[in-house]
Amino acid sequence: GITESYGYFYATRGGIDRPLELIRFQQDGKEKVLGAFNSNYTGFKTGYEDSPAWWTEEMPDPRWNLRSYSNIRYLDKDGKKHSFTRKGKYFRIALNRPAGIVSAIELSDDGNSSIEVFDIESRKSIRKIPAPEGTQLMNESWLNGKLYALVLSEEGYSLFRLGDSWERVLGPVGCNITELLSQKGKLTFVADASGVKEFYSFDPDTGETMQMSVTRYGGSDFQFTDQGDSLIFSAYSKDGQYPCITAIEDLPVRKVDLSQRWEPLFARTVTEQERQLGTLRKEYDADISEPQHYSRIGHPVRIQSWAPMFIDYDAVANASFETLVTSAAPG
Fold first, then answer.
1. pLDDT tens digit sequence for 37-49
2. Using DSSP, how many helices (H) and how many strands (E) does the chain show?
3. Least buried of 4, 35, 261, 287, by fewest C-beta within 10 Å?
4. Contact, 72 vs 93, CB < 8 A?
5. Do residues 2 and 232 touch, judged by C-beta distance below 8 A?
């Protein structure tokens, strides 16, 4: 993930040979490692205008191995991490800085989801909105004081506006939609409608959807800078992910219709090949001989046990704690 907060760019970096860590890009372009970071988190969010970066982070219970929590956390000006909630199950936060509130999706033990709204200053819950029946909340965002939610159902993904009732403004669509944000007076999200994850902008008043990026392998964490003249994101490559920045005037903006399902170019070719092969295939009856009794006397050269039992070495080793001793032995 990558975001901007208090005039700095923050990002997480990790790999197969490196644990995840939080880094900050200094004004001179140099990187500063702020410490280790939990890999079980949902992406950074910021309210801009010198506001902290927010995210949700999963934490294990100190006593019970099968219990875990997901709490809302944030960074201060010095890059230090703080917890906003404790022992909750919150995911996918959204900020409404003018109103001083933050919302998050809460998952209950029965599998249902709801949006809970908190007052930032008092840290108290002021509202809880359950998801429509038969759906799952995936993401939410605030735009012009109104709350929008990304909902998944059997028909696909849909965007709803929350007021006195749930009002559908987009969908359902068959492509995957993630990372719902409100930027530059529009709702933005990442979708794989073109085959890879690209950046899209949606106007809920007009219903127009614009594709804002065209990348080779796709990207994630698309956000406009504080000045609004550039777009920062993480680009995918065959060697991993790397941060990118692009000027707004260089973006290949075009109008799209997400209701039209994208079909890979090779899908038709493969389907046609399978149809042609299906006409050439023939069924054959395999000749299988009748089972015969195995005689040990007739095979004296083969090494075999004459005892009417066998010994499970793994069970003996586990019972005698030999496997634990072997694991703890000095190397």
1. 877 777 676 655 5
2. 3, 24
3. 287
4. yes
5. yes
